[in-house]
Design brief:
By secondary structure, the chain is α+β, with helices and mostly antiparallel strands. Strands 2-1-6-5-4-3 form a six-stranded mixed sheet, covered by helices on one side. 31% of the residues lie in helices and 38% in strands.
Length: 146
């Protein structure tokens, strides 16, 4: 018997909120082998490709973690809002960075994730926080606004 959709989502949320480098290997417990994933920087098909993206996150960033702030479950899909917290890898004082985003996730009949689409504004949530690029992005945003 498959768990209820709410139980599936709760398990997935717990997985992401406690994710660590070793935990990426456990993604097959939650994702189908042919799963599809898309975010502002990636679009991949297959569990191994999704695992590669999440493994790379631990190489590129310091202390990354997800905090799910809300969830809506409807049938075999859910919508999660989250904060992604991390520090840039660099010497000297570090400041906590936060990206606010959302995920639309669809499950197959076995309760495994078959589609995972992340939505977040790369310009506002990331580029504006970078030292040189940030000032340009803020200037462009100001010029484009009314």
């Amino acid at each position: 018997m498959n768990p209820s959709p709410h139980a599936q989502v709760e398990s997935l949320v717990h997985f992401f909120e406690t994710l660590n480098p070793a935990g990426v290997a456990r993604m097959g417990e939650f994702y189908a082998a042919d799963t599809w994933f898309k975010d502002p920087f990636n679009e991949v098909q297959g569990l191994a490709q999704v695992q590669h993206i999440f493994s790379h996150m631990y190489v590129a960033l310091d202390r990354p973690r997800f905090v799910v702030t809300a969830q809506v479950v409807e049938g075999r899909q859910c919508f999660l809002t989250w904060n992604f917290e991390f520090y840039f890898r660099r010497r000297g004082p570090q400041q906590l960075q936060t990206i606010r985003g959302a995920s639309h996730i669809s499950f197959n009949e076995a309760g495994l994730v078959v589609r995972h689409r992340d939505y977040w504004d790369a310009a506002e949530e990331l580029y504006e926080k970078l030292p040189l690029l940030g000032s340009l992005m803020r200037w462009l945003k100001k010029r484009a606004g009314s």
